[in-house]
């Protein structure tokens, strides 16, 4: 097993739960997809040359407890599509593939009809006027529900996600996004914590942002979230990179072994990776791309 695959297994199991990706002797692995007790699991095989070649998705290992008919086949197809979409030769892909799979499952679920099949013995359909009233009432309820949501839930943050960084079983993951105001930056953090249980269960969610305001004003802020000086170091990194109208959240899941000062290098490296993926910076030593810099 390559070091890349070992690190990827540690990262997935730290973020999604123990045994998310586990060895199935002699040559296979079982990947349990996100989704709780009813989640499907798939059988994968990794060549010795992975990640220079993609993983083989051999089939469905289990459709999950109380899963609807066809769920296993659907998840197998969606995960194969996800791997095909994110895989790049030489780069590990499972974390990105799992995230892409989750996005595709959500799209499919939203497109599926929510009502039960039509019963031939059911009463006649309602009149057009009754149906129209029901639709208007439903729209009104949805509008009321939207009005009752916290303001930070009304806008989906456009996160750009780094690769996971693993060190002694601690996992670091960064999310970066363009922002135009401190209020928007704060709402993005609230949205992330409210909607992602993996983030809520993390040891630290360290944040920093730099925003240009009107008439030459500017806003800069950071939050350590219990990791002393980490937020300030993120902000200093953004200052050195001359990034504006950008925020970053670095999440750490503690692996049980102290990293000492090394953790700050990992925090900044993870943030930089998100900035590079967003196109706001280039790899170290290559200079900064145009866009959110000066």
TrEMBL record:
Keywords: Cytoplasm, Repressor, Stress response, Translation regulation. Residues 114-123 have a biased composition (Pro residues). PROSITE patterns: RWD (PS50908), UPF0029 (PS00910). It is found in: Cytoplasm. GO terms for biological process: GCN2-mediated signaling; regulation of translational initiation. It holds the Pfam family Impact_N. It comes from the Eukaryota. Residues 7-108 form the RWD domain. GO terms for cellular component: cytoplasm. Residues 106-149 are annotated as: Disordered. InterPro entries: Impact, Impact_N, Impact_N_sf, Ribosomal_Su5_D2-typ_SF, RWD_dom, UBQ-conjugating_enzyme/RWD, UPF0029_Impact_CS. CDD domains: RWD_ScYIH1-like. PANTHER family: IMPACT-RELATED, PROTEIN IMPACT. Belongs to the IMPACT family. This is RWD repeat domain-containing protein. It comes from Colletotrichum cuscutae.
